[in-house]
């Protein structure tokens, strides 16, 4: 019996995905839940496990092609044994009950209508426009998944429960292989942006458009942090299996400062400022081969130092090995980015909307500094904060930064 | 405050106006000694005399024309169609003459053309029609469609006092089925004003005439499913109360129109167009229609049952619209 493999919906606002890699060729045997293909969406890259065991008979969507969710991407001829599986399809009906199936890829009819666009009503679209709600972030409960008045009003009432505003969905134009062509001034290589690149591009433009960015830079002496880190470094590595970096120190100081300065941990919703009573800390991770992703440490304010250190490590690993789930990159309330790893003195980062500020960490290096009329050699770092001047004034941003500086310079083991 | 029927309310309204203003007269077939086919004019000829309760030959165009002539001479004539279906015989008098004289000559034509309309009483195709849309397309006319006894009384009085031709459509199914307390005293119901019969939260039904009661019954059933349906009774079809229509759209954002009249070019289409033009961005779903099908009213009782919109039809469409 044939089982269709469909493009899964990796996150509720996702409308399409690009097949970046097939792990199986037609004719290959595949086990149930064995990685079958890799999908890149504008939020996350994921390996998709096979919905059934059997032989891959046809691959319908080639690598590099972008298709709407629920589009059939491959066909698996299931083995007789698979028929005995708990969610065995009936002999006549193609669809398999997806609810009982833990794998993200579900089988369905081939011609199921792709939910390529958010269905709503004129009223809902008007409310969305007036309240600056991204409809793709609202779950529709109406006929055919339509976003109804009730849905959008519910989403507005509970802003904390609304997933983050996401950038406009990329166009349906599929990613195409690079072509080298003769340009007017010489050979040029033209390449369609990847889904992630387009998402980043749209988000950056949107962020700069909606919020006036101002950047403030503080210089911080990391002597105290360094002392603590040096003392703990070896035992930490032996115990945890990964090195102790500066990031958890800065993250810890930042989370505490965020609790003290709630406006820096807020978002703008129309003419309202929404102060988050939780801290979901995003840490920007550069990906090999380009691209950038911001996994989020949920409820970072409830973690101790070790918990933060582990979470930073875990999410960074997951990001680099493409094991992040869509939920891992949603719901951030503040972001830290680290251009210093590339040698930058300090950055002027772009705010991750709808957050209102982002902290950049510059390179940590020994500098000659003047302390009480003496020149000393100290490990120094520039921390920069880009903030949304609609809601945060310098008089609010600088005390936030001063608190981070104070915490780091007077670091005491937790 | 005595309970009276819808029919008695019309009779009282006419009686009071005959009493109040000696220029009010009534013309029609069998309205004298017989008291009219449905007894609306029962007892009137004895009280007001043959000079004011005028029995006519079977010639609707003739006595409608006579009524228009009387109105030029200062009278306020009421024309009774024995069944409203027969009004088509006076179509030219009403549309070409009565409706146009204010525009043509600046003349006031204060006539009321009234009669039993609608189905549900096994009257067959010639005694059950809804004629409103033959006339709703004619500028210069007013059309009222009372659904309650109080409205029947208040609107007949307002129609008689109106300076322009009014078509007053009384629903024969309601004649003796509706009984209610009607306030005493001299009062009228303004022409052109709709009434919210029941407030609701989830959707609205816009309707008139006998269907108001179907809508109210459906709203009661829907309430048990936690669906709150607003019921707007138009009361007047020409001029339409746009303000009330748009207000209910803006209140619930989901609307359907219910009428007993047939579907094509029924007033539902016009209302849907108004909403589309003026309140598109207030809509959370399509404007739907529940109407009779495009056929004459059948004589066969099961077919007539099928023809008329029922409570179950209204409930089904309401559920569909709420889930949309």
Describe this structure in words.
Helix content of chain A is 25%, strand content 26%. Chain A folds into three domains: 2-83, OB fold (Dihydrolipoamide Acetyltransferase, E2P), CATH 2.40.50; 122-161, Dihydrolipoamide Transferase; 212-409, Chloramphenicol Acetyltransferase, CATH 3.30.559. In chain A, the strands form six sheets. In chain A, strands 11, 14, 17, 18, 19, 20 and 21 form a seven-stranded mixed beta sheet that branches. Chain A has helices spanning 80-83, 122-131, 149-157, 195-210, 223-240, 247-260, 305-320, 394-409; strands at residues 2-6, 16-22, 29-30, 35-40, 45-49, 54-59, 66-68, 72-78, 179-183, 186-190, 213-221, 266-269, 272-275, 281-283, 285-286, 292-293, 296-297, 334-337, 357-361, 365-371, 374-388. In chain A, a hairpin with a 2-residue loop joins β20 and β21 (374-388). Chain A is α+β, with helices and mostly antiparallel strands. Chain B has 324 residues and is an alpha/beta fold. Chain B is built from twelve helices and 14 strands. Chain B has helices at residues 6-20, 44-48, 60-72, 91-98, 101-105, 132-136, 149-161, 211-223, 242-252, 267-279, 301-307, 311-323, and strands at residues 3-5, 24-28, 53-55, 76-80, 112-117, 142-144, 166-171, 179-181, 195-198, 203-207, 229-233, 236-238, 255-262, 288-292. Chain B has a seven-stranded mixed beta sheet with strand order 3-2-4-5-7-6-12, sandwiched between helices. A five-stranded mixed beta sheet of chain B has the order 9-11-10-13-14, with helices on both faces. In chain B, strands 1-8 form a two-stranded antiparallel sheet.
């Amino acid at each position: 019996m044939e089982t269709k493999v469909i493009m899964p919906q990796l996150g509720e606002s996702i409308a399409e995905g690009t097949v970046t890699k097939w792990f199986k060729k037609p004719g290959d045997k595949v086990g149930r839940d064995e990685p079958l293909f890799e999908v890149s969406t504008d939020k996350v890259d994921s390996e998709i496990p096979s919905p059934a065991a059997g032989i891959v008979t046809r691959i319908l969507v080639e690598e590099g092609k972008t298709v709407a969710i629920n589009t059939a991407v491959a066909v698996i001829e299931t083995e007789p044994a698979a028929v005995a599986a708990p969610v065995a399809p009936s002999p006549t009906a193609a669809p398999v009950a997806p609810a009982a199936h833990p794998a993200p890829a579900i089988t369905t009819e081939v011609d199921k209508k792709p939910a390529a666009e958010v269905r709503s009503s004129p009223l809902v679209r008007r409310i969305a426009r007036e309240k600056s709600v991204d409809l793709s972030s609202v779950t529709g409960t109406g006929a055919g998944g339509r976003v109804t008045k009730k849905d959008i009003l519910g989403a507005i009432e509970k802003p904390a429960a609304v997933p983050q505003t996401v950038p406009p969905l990329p166009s349906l134009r599929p990613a195409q292989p690079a072509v080298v062509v003769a340009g007017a001034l010489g050979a040029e290589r033209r390449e369609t942006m990847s889904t992630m690149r387009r998402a980043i591009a749209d988000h950056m433009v949107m962020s700069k458009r909606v919020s006036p960015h101002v950047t403030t830079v503080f210089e911080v002496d990391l002597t105290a942090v360094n002392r603590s880190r040096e003392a703990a470094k070896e035992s930490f590595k032996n115990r945890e299996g990964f090195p102790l970096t500066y990031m958890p120190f800065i993250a810890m100081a930042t989370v505490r400062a965020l609790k003290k300065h709630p406006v820096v941990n807020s978002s703008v919703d129309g003419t309202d400022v929404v102060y988050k009573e939780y801290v979901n800390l995003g840490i920007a991770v550069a990906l090999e081969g380009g691209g950038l992703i911001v996994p989020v440490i949920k409820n970072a304010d409830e973690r101790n130092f070790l918990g933060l250190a582990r979470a930073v490590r875990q999410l960074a690993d997951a990001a680099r090995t493409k094991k992040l789930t869509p939920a891992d990159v949603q719901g951030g309330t503040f972001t830290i980015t680290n251009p210093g790893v590339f040698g930058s003195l300090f950055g002027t980062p772009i705010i991750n909307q709808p957050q209102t500020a982002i902290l950049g960490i510059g390179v940590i290096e020994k500098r000659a500094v003047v302390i009480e009329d003496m020149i000393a050699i100290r490990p120094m770092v520039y921390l920069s904060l880009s903030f949304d001047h609609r809601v945060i004034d310098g008089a609010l941003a600088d005390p936030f930064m001063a608190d981070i500086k104070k915490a780091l310079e007077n670091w005491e083991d937790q | 405050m005595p309970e009276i029927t819808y029919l008695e309310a019309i009779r009282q309204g006419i009686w009071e106006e005959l009493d109040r203003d000696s220029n009010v007269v009534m013309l029609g077939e069998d309205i004298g000694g017989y008291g009219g086919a449905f007894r609306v004019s029962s007892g009137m000829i004895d009280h007001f005399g043959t000079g004011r309760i005028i029995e006519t030959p079977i010639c609707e165009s003739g006595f409608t024309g006579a009524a228009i002539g009387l109105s030029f001479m200062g009278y306020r004539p009421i024309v009774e169609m024995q069944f409203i279906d027969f009004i088509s015989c006076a179509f030219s008098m009403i549309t070409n003459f009565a409706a146009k004289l204010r525009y043509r000559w600046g003349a006031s034509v204060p006539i009321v053309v009234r009669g039993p309309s609608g189905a549900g009483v096994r009257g067959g195709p010639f005694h059950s029609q809804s004629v409103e849309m033959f006339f709703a397309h004619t500028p210069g006319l007013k059309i009222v469609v009372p659904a309650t006894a109080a409205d029947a009384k208040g609107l007949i009085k307002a129609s008689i006092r109106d300076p322009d031709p009014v078509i007053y459509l009384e629903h024969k199914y309601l004649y003796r089925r509706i009984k209610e307390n009607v306030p005493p005293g001299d009062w009228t119901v303004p022409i052109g004003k709709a009434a919210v019969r029941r407030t609701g939260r989830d959707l609205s039904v816009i309707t008139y005439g006998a269907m108001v009661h179907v809508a109210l019954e459906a709203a009661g059933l829907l309430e048990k499913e936690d669906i709150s349906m607003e019921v707007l009774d138009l009361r007047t079809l020409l001029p339409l109360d746009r303000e009330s229509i748009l207000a209910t759209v803006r209140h619930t954002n989901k609307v359907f129109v219910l009428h007993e009249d047939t579907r094509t070019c029924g007033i539902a289409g016009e209302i849907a167009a108004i909403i589309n033009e003026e309140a598109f961005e207030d809509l959370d779903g399509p404007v739907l229609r529940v109407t009779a099908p495009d056929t004459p009213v059948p004589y066969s009782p099961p077919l007539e049952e099928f023809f008329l919109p029922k409570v179950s039809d209204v409930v089904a469409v309401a559920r569909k619209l709420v889930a949309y």
